[in-house]
Amino acid sequence: MVLNKTCSIFISILFFSSAVYAEDDFTHYAFANYLGSGLYRTSGQNATVVNLPVSFELQKNDTETLMLRAPVSLGFFNFKWSDVPEGDLPSSVGTATFTPGIEYRVRTSERYEFQSYFDLGYGKNFTSGTDVAIMSAGVSSLLDLEFKQSRPRWVNRLYFAGYRSFDGEQKETYSALQSGIDIGTDIHWQWNWLGVDVEPRVFAVGYWYFDKLRIATPFGDDVLVSNSLEVGATLAFSKPILWEWMGIDRLGLSVRAGDGIQAWRLIFEFPI
Known about the structure:
Blueprint: H1 7-13, H2 27-30, H3 32-35, E1 39-42, E2 45-52, E3 55-60, E4 64-69, E5 72-76, E6 95-98, E7 101-107, E8 112-125, E9 130-144, E10 153-165, E11 171-184, E12 189-191, E13 196-215, E14 223-237, E15 250-258, E16 261-267
Organism: Shewanella canadensis
Keywords: Signal
Protein name: Transporter
């Protein structure tokens, strides 16, 4: 998700977001890489974060892959959907996080893959000057199912994330379980410009937070989220497009809702 290539790519990527901002709160940017991308709206307020899922292969064989994760999130204040048709773009970066880590993937059979990761990173709010240390770990189960030619993939993930401010005065954690399925349509065509095969796919996923996730709002009360449901559709590419190190192998749109939170996501990767 490179921001300085073209205007159209820049505007599209802006819809990646993770929470609603309160200047003296850390949750909205400390967890940006783990809450999921999208334009979140609660209590009549919006927020925008650009998630850059950068990763590199360190080692790979027939069954195992070791990845270096290096995701970056950039947060923008006072930006909303209505600004886009008028051509208005964010004037400055409000927050940034960098959470490098290691991901290990092992395929135990043709249909089953197990994944685990550990991240340790840093976040900064440029407006308030505050800094946080961020840690996250999780495991995932991916199972390829048989159903005609739709090639469904059932995904379950369990993960934990936490942060602590550098002055030690604030800290917070959350853990979550998500389960969803991604299903193909068996409709294929060739995108000659990018040299990839394309298939439309649809997905649905549920999220359950063991300790309610607090989404801070600039005005009014914070929102405690215990669960949410998301549905959407993507175009799946036969190989990553544009910049392979960014892993853009999907392009799609979804909506997530639950406990007073509504989020629209423009998707650039596997959605579950």
